[in-house]
Amino acid sequence: MIMIKREIGEKGQVVIPKDIRDSFGLKEGSKVVFEVKDKEIVIKPEQNPEEFLKDFFNILKLKKRLTSKEIKKIILEQYDEEIPRR
To answer: Do the Cβ atoms of 4 and 21 come closer than 8 Å?
Structure first.
């Protein structure tokens, strides 16, 4: 694990270090996703829509029939999009 400290600017902005941007292929205009899990914030590149659909349909290939509630739960767990309410 690599830890790099950055100061939050006046407008709440943080600069992603160049080495990290380069290694993830992030350029001006790239989109990132913020995941909130317990007391952690994870920033990662936005997933390509085609990859998202491929992953989604792989879930549906399961032999067991799933309810829409179960599918939603799997998706939320897989992509950690559920933000805890405080």
So the answer is: no
